[in-house]
Amino acid sequence: MQMFTVLSQEKSTSPYFQGVYSRDTFPSLQENMCAIVNSDDSSQPETPWLALFVDDKRELEFYDSFGQPPVFYTGVQNLSNR
């Protein structure tokens, strides 16, 4: 997976990279956290992978390589409430 390679090896992201998760296994948000999240639960077929970064103010940055906004992924919207 290209996103995993970049986020885990790039010196500006690797200190913050927490890993790869499905939507239902994603941990609570932490400051300065970077992760890759599948937009579906682990029991469902894989759908697009998303990159997330939480800064020191707990603001969530979202990256989708298909260019869809967060509202397109209904299950992902709840991640920021954790």
Provide a concise account of the structure shown.
This protein has 82 residues and is mainly β.
Task: Please explain how this structure is put together.
The protein has one helix and four strands. The protein is mainly β. Strand 3 and strand 4 form a beta hairpin. The protein starts with a helix and ends in an 18-residue tail after the last strand.
Structural class: mainly beta
Spatial order of the strands forming the largest sheet: 1-2-3-4
Question: What is the strand tally?
Answer: 4
Strand percentage: 25-35%
Order of helices and strands: HEEEE
Largest sheet: 4 strands, mixed
Overall pLDDT metric: 85
Basic shape:
globular
Helical proportion? under 10%
Radius of gyration: 12 Å
Annotation field: number of helices:
1
Poorly predicted regions are none
What is the rounded distance between the termini? 26 Å
Task: Set down the secondary structure blueprint.
Elements (H helix, E strand, L loop, with lengths): L1 H8 L7 E5 L11 E6 L10 E6 L5 E5 L18
Parallel strand pairs: 1-2
Antiparallel strand pairs: 2-3, 3-4
